[in-house]
Amino acid sequence: MLRRLLPLAIAIAVTPPAAAQTRATIIPSVVIGGIYDDNVSARAQADAGQMLQVRPSLEADYESPTVTLISLWSFDMQRSNHSALNELDARRHAMFDAKWRTSSLTTWGVGGRYDRTDSPADIDLDAGLLFGRRNAQRFQVTPAVSRRFGQRTLVNARYDWTTESLLNDSRGSLHVARTDLSRQLSERTSVMTGYVGKLFMDSVSEHQSHAALLGWTRQMAEFTTLTMYAGPRWTSYRGVVPEVALTLARDGRTVKGGFDYSHGETIILGVLGPVQVDTGAARITVAPTRKVEFGLHTSASKILTLDERAATVYRGTVVGSWSIGGPYTIAASYSADYQLGDVRRNLFRDDRVLRHVIRLGVTIAPSFSRSFLPPDEAARAKGVSR
Asked: How far lies 232's CA from each of 161, 212, 374, in Å?
């Protein structure tokens, strides 16, 4: 996460002062689509299913010279040939991200996320482990602060609290404290030093880790950036192990892509204690026109638990979208997941699981936006003194 926080914080710090105009945007939308899943329960013995899914959502954004707020709420209704999957509330999702710039040097932020689903794989964001159909939920809250000293030095501090649970099963929590100092050596190169402390808590045990990190960021070309960090991690459960992350990202006008690798630790639904995860992922998105976009995402994750149970997950997804005009967008995707091994304590182990999912949907999303000036600015614009 530090590799993502560092470029974001630098961008915030060097952003020039905005105009005194304020903008509020509301985007109600609904996605109507069909899903074919050849393994709805994510088991070795596959059982195919078709679903009609309707997803209403509401996005509300606010932007002023000092405050930025992004929020989204949605839920899924679905009907399937499997009666057990017919639900009016199959999934809920809510998120918000707020930033408050108190001065040209300091920016405060807070973010939050809530997910509830009948398919736990949807919210297993780090490992990508396949699950059967069970109710699961996830909460996350993230306050942060960024402070710039001079033109080249930036200090960030951030705290993450995440809790995940399966219905009638285990619950796990992860507390993460991060701080880092970055120094810009040139227009293209920055170095970073930082600390990450983690506390893992569940119903049975408690573990912790502490990592000292050194990082380096280099703008390789106009749209391409390489970020690396590494360092020793002291853990209460496995001694000293390395912490490593690498990101190569391209953010071009028509082609975006990148590669990520990380060797770290996290929590997984239904698994007690911290879990070691090695993940490599590649992605590319091509937008030949303003209305058409294609993407390919692939990843592989190797998972190891405290009691040496292991699993490897391979994932691949092809996506495409076409804005046909007005508020209408057509999107389609195909994804394949293959899992070797099982890190959960199951009576009937599913050591090899293969899953294919095809989605096709239409999004209707009208946007309502209004720009307005603060009272003092509005009065001056009208020639009235306040």
From this structure: 23, 6, 50
Task: Find out whether 198 and 206 touch, Cβ atoms under 8 Å.
Answer: no
Cite the DSSP H helix spans in the chain.
2-14, 375-381
**322 assigned to some structural domain:** yes
Task: Answer whether 287's CB lies under 8 Å from 295's CB.
Answer: no
pLDDT at 120: 82
259 vs 192: CA distance, rounded Å = 20
Neighbours of 200 (CB within 10 A): 25
Sequence-distant (≥ 6) Cβ neighbours of residue 196 within 8 angstroms: 2, 176, 177, 178, 210, 211, 213, 233, 243
pLDDT at 13 over 70: no
pLDDT digits (tens, 9 = 90+) for 81-101: 888 888 888 899 999 999 999
C-alpha separations of 81 from 37, 40, 269, 336 in Å: 11, 11, 27, 21
Q: How many domains does the chain have?
A: 1
- 234: nearest Cα among 274, 205, 293: 274
Answer yes or no: is 220 within a domain: no
How long a stretch of residues is the chain?
A: 386
Identify whether the C-beta of residue 287 lies closer than 8 Å to the C-beta of residue 254: yes
Q: 353 lies in which domain range?
A: 2-186+247-381
Residue for token digits 């899924």? 76
The whole-angstrom separation of Cα 359 and Cα 59 is 23
Contact 261, 279 (CB under 8 A): yes
DSSP assigned state of 15: P
Check: CB of residue 323 under 8 Å from CB of residue 334: no
Distances 244 to 108, 122, 226, 277 between C-alpha atoms, Å: 27, 25, 14, 11
